[in-house]
Amino acid sequence: MAPVDPHSYTESTHPLTTNISLSLYFDFSTSTIHAAALLSLPTPHSGDLSLDTRSLTIRQVLDPQTLAPIQFSLSSDTDPIKGCLLTVSLSDQSSLLLVFSTSPDSSALQWLSPPQTFNKTHPFVYTQCQSIHARSVFPCQDTPAARVCYKALINIPHQLSAVMAAQHVDRRPPIAGETKMIGGESFDFDYESLWCTEGRIVEEFEMNQPVPPYLFAFAVGELGSREVGPRTKVYAESVPAVLDAAAQEFAGTEELIRQGERLFGEYDWERFDLLVLPPSFPYGGMENPRMVFLTPTVIKGDASGAQVVAHELAHSWTGNLITNKNNEHFWLNEGFTTYAERRIVEVVQGEDRAGLNIGIGWRGLNEEMERFKDNMEFTKLKTNQEGVDPDAVYSEVPYEKGFQFLWRIERQIGRPAFDEFLKKYIATFKFKSIDTETFLDFLKTNVPGIEKQVDLELWTEGIGIPPDAYEPVSNIYTKIVSLANEFKLGKIPREEEVADWQGQEWELYLENLPKSVEASQVVALDARYRLAESKDYEVKVAFLQLAISCNCRDYYGEVEKTLKEVGRMKYLRPLYRALVQGTGKDEEKILAKRVFGEARDCYHPIARGVVESIFAKHL
Ligand code: BES
Ligand code: ZN
């Protein structure tokens, strides 16, 4: 039997689940969800069915019609990447009911105690399932090759509310007996009375469009919202100042959606709401359908908030409609989305800003070549991920090399033809999960002769950056890069040269500075422009990274503070890496370990794992 995905136990000969019905009882006192999941298959199946799980206690597996037990076994050893294999033995059954509990260290879930929230009165919990963490919330075929519709009943204390990447159906008191049909009776404790405890409320959701499991998402807490457009509300912890700032930052969202529709076809998901998470959210944004999740660090009153929203919005077409079949083809999600994001940014913010983003990406892509110089597999677009943890090899390559590839094709055939091609590609493969070959076949069929003009194999299977990749040309980009090069000669930009710089200009400048410069020069730059204290984390982190690589200890206090106040991995990774990589950095290594020890509990489990893998590599 062949697996369909190197990161999943799903077997190619087994039917793929089409519908899941979940009831989730949130116990904040133990950071546990007690749950039942009804999985439906398209046809009756006899024999084994393999499911992915991680950190789950499986209590029972039942036939939902008869409530007769179904035999199951949970592998005794846990694969560090895939988790535990749950095998259930079916006999001509097309549905099964799983009764289970999550554990406090389920990797998708971050539980925040009241003191860890802004208002400090109520707890908060949220998911991050991409790439392979949905299995730590419920047993499933956790591969994007599978697409499911789902329903969820979320049972929480009435002071809290829930949001999901799904349609909200109802908020109402628990109903006695409603869990029976989905297995409530069969818990080994009195689940029924737990479900109906005084002071609980049930939020009901439905996702009627088939989505890959990594797009399953919820958040529960003391939430508030503001309306910012005809199909957009912004949600966040109920703090008026946070909600107001978010509403202002994202006021232009409807315009982004309209531009997206013009370029890629109708927006298919009805709502496009935004959820601003606590600072520990491990990503900049996550494209959960109908409800994008965002880090609060994007709220800073400049163009970059809209850029992240444009990116997550673009996933509505590339990623959520057309999905990579498994993580080896992740560039199909992120490369297309980065291309689409920049097309939207170009219309809304102008060519200069889009060019600046391309330039920042180009710099990032070149740095990744350095990072992977001993492991060139991960400089490819299509990668072999057998035995590889997607979180450990997450990089800008699928984003920026993917972008470069599509940009190359656009240059070859011209924008109008490429736009038409993109629309057709989306219309053809929507609600499907595809691989690189499927894309290339479609490209060759629809753009005859393209393989003679662009080396498609080199782009998708080759290592490094192909010679026909392109550094952006624009006045502002060229100016910033040459100012950065002059830093070597001791030149710090003059006030009038940087007068209209926003965060992204500084980011590009700092990232293009030579890696080893005199500590005194770093201090001089900061004395003039106060970069270490910037409210913009992109700028602050780029500066602190430079300071660490120049052993400029004056800034270690600020490094520690930063590592303790945000959990976005885009900032944690370079700072921890700069501290621990290289020889003769004992003081930095001790600092990194101490800070991680103190900050660990505030990080999302995925971020904890990523920092630990950086330590494992360098310490
Ligand atoms: N889908 C990604 C986030 C992700 C990738 C989560 C892989 C888990 C595994 C999201 O769309 C993304 O790319 N976010 C970026 C935003 C940026 C490119 C504008 C981020 O978080 O930095
Ligand atoms: Zn993305």
Automatic annotation (TrEMBL):
<dbReference type="GO" id="GO:0004301">
    <property type="term" value="F:epoxide hydrolase activity"/>
</dbReference>
<comment type="similarity">
    <text>Belongs to the peptidase M1 family.</text>
</comment>
<comment type="function">
    <text>Aminopeptidase that preferentially cleaves di- and tripeptides. Also has low epoxide hydrolase activity (in vitro). Can hydrolyze the epoxide leukotriene LTA(4) but it forms preferentially 5,6-dihydroxy-7,9,11,14-eicosatetraenoic acid rather than the cytokine leukotriene B(4) as the product compared to the homologous mammalian enzyme (in vitro).</text>
</comment>
<dbReference type="InterPro" id="IPR042097">
    <property type="entry name" value="Aminopeptidase_N-like_N_sf"/>
</dbReference>
<dbReference type="GO" id="GO:0006508">
    <property type="term" value="P:proteolysis"/>
</dbReference>
<keyword id="KW-0378">Hydrolase</keyword>
<dbReference type="InterPro" id="IPR027268">
    <property type="entry name" value="Peptidase_M4/M1_CTD_sf"/>
</dbReference>
<keyword id="KW-0963">Cytoplasm</keyword>
<feature type="binding site">
    <location>
        <begin position="568"/>
        <end position="570"/>
    </location>
    <ligand>
        <name>a peptide</name>
    </ligand>
</feature>
<feature type="binding site">
    <location>
        <begin position="128"/>
        <end position="130"/>
    </location>
    <ligand>
        <name>a peptide</name>
    </ligand>
</feature>
<feature type="active site" description="Proton donor">
    <location>
        <position position="399"/>
    </location>
</feature>
<feature type="binding site">
    <location>
        <position position="311"/>
    </location>
    <ligand>
        <name>Zn(2+)</name>
    </ligand>
</feature>
<dbReference type="Pfam" id="PF17900">
    <property type="entry name" value="Peptidase_M1_N"/>
</dbReference>
<feature type="binding site">
    <location>
        <begin position="282"/>
        <end position="287"/>
    </location>
    <ligand>
        <name>a peptide</name>
    </ligand>
</feature>
<dbReference type="Pfam" id="PF09127">
    <property type="entry name" value="Leuk-A4-hydro_C"/>
</dbReference>
<dbReference type="InterPro" id="IPR014782">
    <property type="entry name" value="Peptidase_M1_dom"/>
</dbReference>
<feature type="active site" description="Proton acceptor">
    <location>
        <position position="312"/>
    </location>
</feature>
<dbReference type="InterPro" id="IPR034015">
    <property type="entry name" value="M1_LTA4H"/>
</dbReference>
<dbReference type="Pfam" id="PF01433">
    <property type="entry name" value="Peptidase_M1"/>
</dbReference>
<dbReference type="InterPro" id="IPR038502">
    <property type="entry name" value="M1_LTA-4_hydro/amino_C_sf"/>
</dbReference>
<dbReference type="InterPro" id="IPR045357">
    <property type="entry name" value="Aminopeptidase_N-like_N"/>
</dbReference>
<dbReference type="InterPro" id="IPR001930">
    <property type="entry name" value="Peptidase_M1"/>
</dbReference>
<keyword id="KW-0482">Metalloprotease</keyword>
<keyword id="KW-0862">Zinc</keyword>
<protein>
    <recommendedName>
        <fullName>Leucine aminopeptidase</fullName>
        <ecNumber>3.3.2.10</ecNumber>
    </recommendedName>
</protein>
<keyword id="KW-0645">Protease</keyword>
<dbReference type="GO" id="GO:0008270">
    <property type="term" value="F:zinc ion binding"/>
</dbReference>
<feature type="domain" description="Peptidase M1 leukotriene A4 hydrolase/aminopeptidase C-terminal">
    <location>
        <begin position="475"/>
        <end position="615"/>
    </location>
</feature>
<dbReference type="InterPro" id="IPR015211">
    <property type="entry name" value="Peptidase_M1_C"/>
</dbReference>
<feature type="binding site">
    <location>
        <position position="334"/>
    </location>
    <ligand>
        <name>Zn(2+)</name>
    </ligand>
</feature>
<dbReference type="GO" id="GO:0008237">
    <property type="term" value="F:metallopeptidase activity"/>
</dbReference>
<feature type="binding site">
    <location>
        <position position="315"/>
    </location>
    <ligand>
        <name>Zn(2+)</name>
    </ligand>
</feature>
<dbReference type="InterPro" id="IPR016024">
    <property type="entry name" value="ARM-type_fold"/>
</dbReference>
<keyword id="KW-0479">Metal-binding</keyword>
<dbReference type="InterPro" id="IPR049980">
    <property type="entry name" value="LTA4H_cat"/>
</dbReference>
<dbReference type="GO" id="GO:0005829">
    <property type="term" value="C:cytosol"/>
</dbReference>
